[in-house]
Each structure stands twice: as C-alpha cells, then as structure tokens.
Amino acid sequence: MREEFEKLAAAGKIEGKHVEPLTHLVDGGCCSHRSWGFGKIKAVDTVFARFTIDFNSKAGHTMDLSFAAEQLKPIPKNHILARKAADLDAVRHLAAHHLDLIKLVLNSFDGKATADQIQSVLVPDVIADDYKKWWETAKREMKKDGHFIVPTKKTEPVVYQAQETSLQDRVLADFRAAKGLKARILIVAEIIKAVPDLKDKQTAANEVIAVLNADITSHQRTQPAVALEAIFMRDELRADTTAQVVAGEISAAQIWAQEGIKFSVLLEAVPAAKHHRALESFKTANPEKWVEVLRSALNLVSCKLAKEIVSLLTHNGKLDLLKETLARLINQHAASSELLLWFAKERNEDFVDILGPEVFRAMLTAMERDQFNERRSNRLRDFILEDQALIAELTATADIEIVKDLTRALKLSPVFDDMDKRSLLARLVKAHPAVQSLITGEQTKQDTALLVTWESLERRRVEYQEIVEKKIPANSKEIAIARSYGDLRENHEYKAAKEMQKILMRQKEDLEAALNRARGQDFLNVKTDVVAPGTIVQTTDLESGQRETFTILGAWDSNPDKGIISYLTPVAMALLNHKVGDEVEAELQGSKRRQRIEKIEAWKTEASPAA
C-alpha cells in the first residue's frame, strides 16, 4: 500500500510524513487507540482517504487517514492482541504450553510485563477457567527455564532474555543482590523451592548459609524476630540440602534465651506464617516453663497468635489448664478484646462450658477499656455487629434475670452508637422476648400480673422443677456423652442433644417469666354484680336461642368439657365487666355471635366448694 499512500500524498490528500505510519498500520492490520483500545483494520478507501476499523466498542468505524496516522499505534502481526484477533482458538491451544504463551506475551511488550499485565491480556478470552492455577504452573516452569526472570514482588515485571542463565546462577545472583536480611529471607524462600532443580545444591546452600549466619549474628539483639526467621530458613535449607552445621552458629534457643527478650513482643514481630514454627522452637528451648509462658502471653497477643497458642496447648494435652486460664480472664473481666475476638470467632465445642453470657459482658468491658487505649482496635466490636448469631448463642442457657442485667449493661455501654445498639438489643429481644419491656420502657400485656388459681400455679411450679431438676441435667449428660464420640461436625447425637438443650432452656425461660407474673387466687366469694374472674355466667345466643354456661377462672385454667375457660380467652374478655341483661358480641367457635347475659353467680363460696 506504500505506493497508494505516496500517490495520495502527491495529490495533497495526506501529508508526506503520514506515508510511513500508514504503511505500518496496513502491514500489521491491527492498531490501538488510547480511548477505544484495540482495533482491526477492515478496509482502506483510497478514494475518500479513510480506514474502516473494527474497535471493540465501535465496529465499522471510519477514520480519516491523516487522523489515523496521528492517533493510532500500529500493532504487529505477531503481537498477542493481533494473534487473538486473527485466530483466538490457536492462542487458546497455545495455553497448554505455558512458556510459549508467556514468551508471546512478553515479546509483545518489549520483553517484559507485570503479572497484572499478563493476566489482563489472557483472561477471560484465552484462559477462562482457574487462571490462578495456570499462572502458578507457569511461574514454576519459568523459574526452571533459563530465559525468564521471575520477580519476588508482584509489581515488578517478568522478563524474557534470549541468553539462557541457569536456575542456580539466577537465584544466587538474586540472593547476592538482595539488600538487608529481610530481603535475603525472601530470596532464600525461593531458593528452598528451587532446591530440587539446582545443579549443585551443596555449594549453593553453603554460600547462602554462610551469609545468613553472619546476618543472624548482627541481628540477634537489635532485631531478634528477623534473626529468628532467618534461623528457621537456614535450618530448612540445610535439611533440604544436607549441608553441614557450622560450628558456633546461633540457634533459635539462643535467641529465646537472650536477656531482656519479651516473649509476646518478639512473637508478634515474627510473620504470621512462622508463628507455629516460632512457638514450637520456644517449646523445645523451654521444656519446663513453656506452658506457663504461653498461658501468660495469651492475653497479650493478637487474635491470630492467640489461635496458634491455643492450638499448641490443646494438641499437647493442656486443654484443662487453658480452660482454667480463659475462665479466669473472662470471669474477672480481664480478657483482652483480641483474645475475646478469637473466642467469639472459634466458639469451639471444647469450650462450651465457658461460652455463656459472662463472655459477652467481658466483651463489653474489654471494648470500654480499649476506648482509653491509644492503639485501640474496633475488630471485636465489628465482629459482634456482623455475627448475627453470637448474642443468641452466648445467652442461650442464661437465666432470664441474667439476660435482663446484660440488656441493661448493653443499653448503658458507650461502645456502640445508637443505631448499632438498637440492632443488638433487637437480637436480644428475638432470643429472649421477656426483655422487651426493658428496652421499650412500656409495660405490655405480657408484663402485667397473671391471675391464676392456686391449683394451676402449683402445676406450673411442678412443671418448672421437672425441667430444672431432671430434664436439663439429663440433657447435659447426653451432650457430654455425645461429645465424647468425637468429630462434632458429623456427630448427629450431639447436634440433637444441643437442639433439645435450646428447647428446654426456652421452656425454662418462659416458665420463669410466667411464674414471676403469676398471682395466686382462690376466687372466693367474688362479687356477682358484673362478670369477673371467679364467676359462672349463663348466656343466651340471640340468634339460635341456645343457652351457654361459662366458668371464668384463672389464666391457666381450661376445661372445655366442663365449660371452664381462662379470663384471657376472647369470649371471657368480651363478657368481663358486663352485668345481667347486657348484650355482648363474643367470638364462639370461630364466629362472632350476639349473647345476652342471663345470670351471674360465684364459682366458689365459703358455704359451697368449687365444682
């Protein structure tokens, strides 16, 4: 097309400087625009001096040749974008050969590209599924191949070089170039991964270990956490390469034994991935005192580290001592917010006997204490707000009076703003409806006294004692036995027993609330000028003429066969406070019916015992 463009230039339709860039555009067949992105040149119109280009968002777009020469960047045919546009299926097949596809991408970007750049041109049209797995495989292959330089930082570019360099030379060069012990530790991690593919493992390991030993010596007092991590990496490299121990090198036990070392502070400075290794090394170095030190540190460390400490103590048969420590810290309201955050997240069945309302009270105390801490964290507060089931689970087995006290404490707590506090109080009401009046300040129908006969009151008391003294203890034994079967996730007996526990505790709570409201009555010599509890009422159905007799007694009395009804039933509520001759509309058998009161008499008098 060069000749055609030269003719257009001679005719004055384009400028001479545009001939070269237009020729490159046509030869490549593809281009890019800073706003519209990738485009494929579909046609060249020399009559009207314009291109027809398919951009991703503008198919069939026409563009003046002079404008195109100024605004478009030519994309060569071997560029990854051009290859995708020409034959996407072929590029997809190339994905099976990781290095070939990566090489194609890198060469498209002048020999180097970041991991994000590579992903952006391959996903989703070339690699639609599980790119992460594909990329991990590609990185392993690149590290083995001598043409690729794979950086440790994601933001740095992957580089392709024509001259091959052995894996061992590359990793050692990276190690030598690293500035500082922390940077060297990162490179050592890569060397450990590459050990199986090194041509001379022993030589490489000896060089690296010698440098690490020197750095460990210089860092052991000023940066003991970094020195400890370097020791772990050194020992791991030695184990993988069978390199010999160097006389006089510093061990992990020597780091822990240094004067002035604060266990929890040093441990927090170690990367989270090395916490377990650090704890194990401390345990090995201090076989006599490690348990007590870990128990003491439990309240001083982060949530993640608390989890690791708990795991180590539990797996070494120290669960009872651990529970003793947790129970003491919680009951004394001395537990830190980080420790309580771990406890709330885990809610492990090993600690089911500690999980209770006192945990939430300790949480409130810890968060209030944190408000005066310069380095306070809101992590526990945020978790409480996010976990919808937490409050209900912690208060599930609590007596209603304890729940009420907890409700009052929550209402007075300065930790939560008004909206969040209302949300938490709503969860308490949902789990324990009896606390509704504490929140609203209103005395609802459920909060007023219940008039009951002494006989029905005694029946409820017996029912309550049966639940408290027999059913709940029996259920607790069932839970303990079921827990001993192990694997609580698949333990159906345990789950069933826990569900029954919830039912029994709810029954207990409901009975407690009802008994607190109950007021025993003998309903003796009740006045009969109007209908009241303790009266027998005769009525006439005004539509059918049928006579009805109702004995209106206490809230828990009901015997339909004998006409005994509670004063809280709809028909009794309609009749109450009316006198002989009054007509009322009462609901009987599901329908509204007009009744006339014919007679009112006392249910029980001193002269005649109750029927």
How does this structure look, described?
The chain is built from 28 helices and 15 strands. Strand 3 and strand 4 form a beta hairpin. Among the domains are: about 70 residues, Roll (SH3 type barrels); about 110 residues, no CATH class; about 70 residues, Helix Hairpins; about 70 residues, Transcription elongation factor, GreA/GreB, C-terminal domain (Chitinase A, domain 3), CATH 3.10.50. The protein has about 600 residues and is of the alpha+beta class. The longest helix is centred in the last third of the chain and has 30 residues. About 0% of the residues have low confidence. The strands form four sheets. A five-stranded antiparallel beta sheet has the order 4-3-2-1-5, with helices on both faces. Helix 2 packs across helix 3 and helix 10 packs parallel to helix 12.
Mean pLDDT: 89
User: How large is the share of residues in beta strands?
Assistant: 5-15%
Q: Please report the total strand number as a whole number.
A: 15
Distance between the termini: 117 Å
Radius of gyration from CA coordinates: 41 Å
Alpha-beta classification: alpha+beta
State the strand order across the main sheet: 4-3-2-1-5
| Shape call | flat
Residue runs with pLDDT of under 50 for 5 or more positions: 442-447
Helical content stands at 40-55%
> Biggest sheet, open or closed, and with what strands and sense?
5 strands, antiparallel
The number of helical segments is: 28
